[in-house]
Design a protein that fits this description.
Blueprint: H1 20-32, H2 40-52, H3 57-68, H4 71-87
Helix pairs in contact: 1-2, 2-3, 2-4
């Protein structure tokens, strides 16, 4: 049993401190339905953000998803990515 102290005063949500790898993993999770239903809009958003953080391979994943999505869905994913960047 853990008997130490967890310092919560410096804790931040995972997405805020996320690097390209963590964002890429979120894209994989949503694109494969690893933790529930497949969500192409969310997957596109996370791959887009991962690419912005330096994950070059996220570009090809995002491109593949875009071929499966409508223009409206792509626009929604891009809006969500911009909103995330603004908030973080």
């Amino acid at each position: 049993m853990f008997q130490g102290v967890i310092e919560t005063s410096t804790a931040v949500p995972a997405e805020i401190g996320a690097n390209g790898d963590a964002l890429f993993d979120l894209g994989l999770m949503f694109s494969t339905g690893r933790s529930g239903a497949i969500d192409l809009v969310a997957a596109h958003k996370w791959f887009n953000l991962a690419a912005l953080k330096g994950r070059v391979d996220a570009l090809s994943h995002r491109r593949e998803l875009a071929e499966l999505m409508s223009e409206t869905e792509i626009a929604m994913a891009q809006r969500e990515a911009r909103a995330w960047m603004t908030a973080h």
